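Re: [ENG-882] Designed sequences occasionally contain unexpected residues at chain ends

Forwarding the minimal case from QA. Structure tokens:
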């Protein structure tokens, strides 16, 4: 499998030419790219979008790379509904990375010292409430200063100067812990920001991995081959060999500076930040680079990366303890993180509650978990709501637990001042024994009618 973003996009365009959109009109990097993406979403369209003429820049911007399940499935050669299953299987396969002996393509151009200028990149401002332009599609790569274990993850990066970025390590997971360790040792944390990478890197960066294991080995599992890495020029960090743009520098110890607000994935702006500072030492890029952006706010790409990873984690955990789990959906209506739908073939009463409790233990952000029978399509929320309407009694099938750890109140304003949130589980399965059957259409007749409708001009099923 190619590990190059450009090659992936070309292959995808060849397979789905109508799902790649090229915008050649001049576009303002302030708000207009976001507004266009949101207009597409209103029409339920999620194409890859190339902005070839961003005002004031000669570098094209690509967005929406991971905005659809169909496109994510294309990465692995599977259908949409098989995506969580395939992700769960691959992400648990460790394939050690490979440091390439040759010079990486991003070394074609390099600026250091006084020549460093982040303003030459088409860094976008997504919403009026944002504190300024933000790098959103960059993956931050670093190593544990004690063990040398690698990590990479998306962190918001506010453009503050030609060689300075504000960075929030808001997840307080691996990157935050690696920085804490470095700061405790009196050192800055060496880190690189890579922009324009194969989408498997973004998907794998969200994986829950033990601190003693690296992320690149898991991404290798997703790719089905060893991740190709290259050394940075000015720091001891290894980055994806085929990156379009690489920004090298340090997350500064004992240095904090206000960062934010930024429009986040729950459709609210967050002022909460670890207020870290990233100082740039070098910028390298391919000839004619492509700048990759992830649209801010509650948009498909921003949220879907979260959702698919959570689906894989829940599937893996449920399958270890429960029989006959069919599907898991973490819907975009729940911001790709707060709601979870599970379908199963129930063989014993109590299994739905077991699934609910197990799912809630996997991620503290889940506020609602709904379990339905296998005849309900959990990727169609109308069917989930139908199951709740006809198979649930609130006095018997709704379970509420108060004061769990939740999401920060700036992202979920309904949580309390200590970021605590109540959790609700709903068993919307039929009781075992007799129950009315769901109405069904004869599949052969349905197929003939689809064929007939497709012959009608202007109608496509």
């Amino acid at each position: 499998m190619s590990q190059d973003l450009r090659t992936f996009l070309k292959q995808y365009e060849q397979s789905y030419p109508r799902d790649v959109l090229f915008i050649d009109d001049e576009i303002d990097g302030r708000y207009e790219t976001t507004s266009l993406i949101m207009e597409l979403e209103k029409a339920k369209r999620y194409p890859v979008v190339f902005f070839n003429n961003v005002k004031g820049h000669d570098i094209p911007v690509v967005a929406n790379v991971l905005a659809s399940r169909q496109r994510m499935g294309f990465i692995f050669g599977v259908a949409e509904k098989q995506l969580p299953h395939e992700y769960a299987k691959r992400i648990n396969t460790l394939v050690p990375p490979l440091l390439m002996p040759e010079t990486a393509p991003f070394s074609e151009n390099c600026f250091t010292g006084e020549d460093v200028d982040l303003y030459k990149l088409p860094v976008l401002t997504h919403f009026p409430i944002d504190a300024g332009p933000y790098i959103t599609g960059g993956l931050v790569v670093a190593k544990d200063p004690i063990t040398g274990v690698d990590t990479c993850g998306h962190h918001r990066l506010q453009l503050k100067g030609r060689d300075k970025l504000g960075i929030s390590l808001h997840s307080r997971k691996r990157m935050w812990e690696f920085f804490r360790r470095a700061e405790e040792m009196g050192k800055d944390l060496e880190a690189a920001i890579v922009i324009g990478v194969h989408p498997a890197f973004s998907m794998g960066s969200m994986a829950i991995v033990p601190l003693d294991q690296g992320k690149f080995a898991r991404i290798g599992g997703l790719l089905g081959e060893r991740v190709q890495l290259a050394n940075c020029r000015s720091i001891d960090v290894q980055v994806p060999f085929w990156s379009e743009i690489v920004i090298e520098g340090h997350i500064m110890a004992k240095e904090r500076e206000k960062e934010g607000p930024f429009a986040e994935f729950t459709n609210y702006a967050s002022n909460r930040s670890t207020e870290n500072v990233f100082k740039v030492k070098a910028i390298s890029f391919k000839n004619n680079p492509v700048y990759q952006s992830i649209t801010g706010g509650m948009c498909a790409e921003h949220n879907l990366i979260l959702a698919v990873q959570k689906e894989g984690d829940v599937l893996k955990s449920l399958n270890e303890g429960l029989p006959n789990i069919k599907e898991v959906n973490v819907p975009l209506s729940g911001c790709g993180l707060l709601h979870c739908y599970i379908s199963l073939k129930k063989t014993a009463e109590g299994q739905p509650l077991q699934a609910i409790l197990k799912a809630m233990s996997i991620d503290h952000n889940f506020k609602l978990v709904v379990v339905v029978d296998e005849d309900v399509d959990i990727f169609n929320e109308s069917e989930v709501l139908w199951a709740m309407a006809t198979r649930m009694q609130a006095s018997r099938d709704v379970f509420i637990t108060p004061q769990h750890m939740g999401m920060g109140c700036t992202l979920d304003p309904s949580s309390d001042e200590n970021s605590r949130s109540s959790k609700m589980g709903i068993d919307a399965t039929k009781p075992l024994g007799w129950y009315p059957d769901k109405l069904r259409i004869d599949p052969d007749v349905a197929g003939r009618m689809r064929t007939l409708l497709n012959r009608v001009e202007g109608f496509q099923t």
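QA comment: On inspection the terminal residues look reasonable. Residues 300-321 form the longest helix (22 residues). Proposing we downgrade this to a documentation issue.
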